[in-house]
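New to this. Comment on this protein:
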Amino acid sequence: MHPLLCKIQHALASQLHEFRAYWVCLALLGISAKTVPFLWYALQQIGAGIALLILACALGWLATELFLKGPKLGSRGKAVLITGCDSGFGYHLAKRLDSEGYLVFAGCLFPEGQGATNLVRGSEKLHIVPLDVTDEQLVRDAVQYVKTNLKGYQLWAVVANAGVNIFLEFEWIRTEDVSRIFDVNVMGVVRTAKAFLPMLRNSRGRMVVVSSYAGRIASNMIVPYSMSKAAVISMADGLRREMKKWGVHVCTIEPFYYQTGINPSGFGSMMSKFERDVPEELRKDYGEYPEHAFQWFMGLLGRISRKNSLEVVDQMFCAVADREPKRHYRSDGFFNWLLYMSLFVLPSAAQDIACSFIEPHFRADEKSGLLLRCST
């Protein structure tokens, strides 16, 4: 195929994948409905507009997920640095990229820990890099280590994956804990990006920032986390525009809720942290609300969290390997995507109403000033 046609094909596949091909499918369905009488009659019976939209979304999702995966670049000569590889997404991505032939530098907070030990077991060239993204010196040391051990490879991608969270309402979280969340989730990404961007400019490579759906919509119990993830989404969008002239692509990974080690271990752990960190006077004001809120939140996580974290790893791999990369890689499932995309485009007032339906119902009593449970 002619190089120009090949590039057009790759760009088309990338754009269709980014927009999930919904409008393309909507147009095709509209044409088909006019030419197939039975289909048009069925759509009229259930409401043509709504039915057309639902079918377009469903078929667009299938077209994107099954048929429009963009072509991948080869791994030859490419190295990748990943932060936060002790466990979770970073650990599995390091294993995946190593198996695909990339030279992997796995940044680990505990380089002698079990996660790091398991990563190097059975691998001939994976490197464990001691890396705490809150420590400027360790980040500089990581840069030097990567440069020393490239051995003919180029640093193609940096995946800023390290992150932390505390599951408490905003008023209950200590200021120093909020600072810790930002130091890891935001400043850790800043330190990593600033340290490795010169190498990425030389290779015209990729900067991949792991964010979250929480960076788009903030819900109860994770406000500081949502703040930090919104910050890195903004950083990635702006940095992508600045780095375009260098040929460096910057994108985000935005997973839905997944069952990972960052989630709370249980109702008891949340309750004990609340009792330990929140002053007694404030605990009295909230009354029995925290117990109900924690039970509600754990139940919600159990219902909506997706179990297969390798779905996210697949998106992270695509961000590294896609020939025509997307701006945002989301891992969610069709119904979660449909729900949250609906909320994304709604005004704040509508988002507040939607969120209120799934929260425990408490209101402050005018006389006592305490939170009391509502009957409905």
